[in-house]
Amino acid sequence: MQGKLIGIFSQAFGVPCWANDISYYESENPYTEIRIFPSDLTIENEIKILRYNKMLENEKKLSSRVEQKTAELQQAKAEIEQYSISLEEKIAERTTELMNSNQQLQKVTGSKATMIRMAISQVTNACVWSRKH
Question: How far apart are CA 6 and CA 45, in angstroms?
Fold first, then answer.
C-alpha cells in the first residue's frame, strides 16, 4: 500500500515522494499514520540498496565460511606435518633397531661359521690321524 501511495503522490506533485508509516496499537482504536513527503529516495534506489546490503551480508557469511575452512585446512596440515615428523622418527628408530639386529646377526653368523670351520677342521684332522694309525 505504501508503494501505491508513493506512486500516486509522486505523480500528483511531479516530484519523487516517499512515505513512512507508524502504527499505534495502544488505544482502543489502533491506527496507522502514513507520512508522505518529497524525497530523493525512490523504490528503485531502495531496492538497489537492499540488494547491495543483502550482497554484503552474503559476502560476510561467505568470507566467514572461507576463513573457517581455511583454519580447518591449516589445522589438518599441521596435524599431517606432525604425523609426518612422528613417522620419520619411527622410521629412524626402526632403522637403528634393524641395523643393530643385523650387526648382532652377523656376529652370531660369524661365530657359527668359525665354530663350523673349527669342527670341520677337527673332524678332518681326526680322519687324517685315524688313517695314519
Answer: 14
